[in-house]
Amino acid sequence: MNLFEKFGIETENEHLYEVAFTHSSYATLHDLDYNYERLEFLGDSVLSLIVSEYLYKKYPDYEEGELTKKRSNFVCQNALIYYSQKLGLKEYLKISIEESNLTKNEVISVTADLFESFLGAILIDQGIDFAKEFVEHWIFKYIDQERIFFEDYKSKMKEYGDAKEVCIEYRILKEYGVPHDKTFIMECLVDGKQMGVGRGKNKKEAEQAAAKGAMRKLRIWRH
To answer: pLDDT digits over 92-134, tens only?
Structure first.
């Protein structure tokens, strides 16, 4: 189905949506002067704002910390990947896997970027009211269902460390990308020995992924 028909979008700026689905590797290969990274930056802020407003109204008795924790569950990378897959956004992605040297896992994480870049394009083209309607239709149902996308693996590793009296540390192995779209690779160390490696769009996400890997290796995996 056509992208615009699928989401009820009437536009005179189809190129904007072409930008929203163009990965930097594809842009480089085809000598294009655009990719989705700026729209991704915008969409990230828009999603956070809309979800924050909904949570603020839905949970009037929640303190700031509780609202922040709640919001992080619905704007984390796992949630974005899920939304993007449900919407079938990968179908419209323009990416050159060979030239960008992306692993299969990295290609999956790109689907998270797509949701944000698509939302950024919707904001620019259709305005904030349409963007809110879009998020309300596709995302709020998961908030109402209290769907869990984010598990605090770092806290679970800390509990393990305290119980076993071992030192749990996190160390950055690598970071790359432009300032507004970086990727971090972190390792989780147990008494100085690497037990897990994780990737994320910020250090916290990468640490959580590393902790998750460590839990699997230590066989304290709870899923």
So the answer is: 999 886 655 666 666 777 889 999 999 999 999 999 999 999 9
| Extents of the domains making up the chain | 3-144, 153-217
Spot the catalytic one: 37, 40, 44, 187.
Answer: 44
DSSP 135-194: HHHHTHHHHHTT------HHHHHHHHHHHHT--EEEEEEEEES-TTS-EEEEEEEETTEE
Q: What is residue 163's predicted lDDT score, i.e. its pLDDT?
A: 93
The CATH classification number of 153-217 equals 3.30.160.20
CATH class, 3-144 region: mainly alpha
Is residue 116 part of the annotated active site? The answer reads: yes
Burial of 142 (0-12, 13-18, 19+ CB in 10 A): middle
Catalytic annotation present for 33: no
Q: Residue 199 and residue 193: Cα distance in Å, rounded?
A: 18
SS3 222: coil
Catalytic pick from 37, 116, 125, 187? Answer: 116
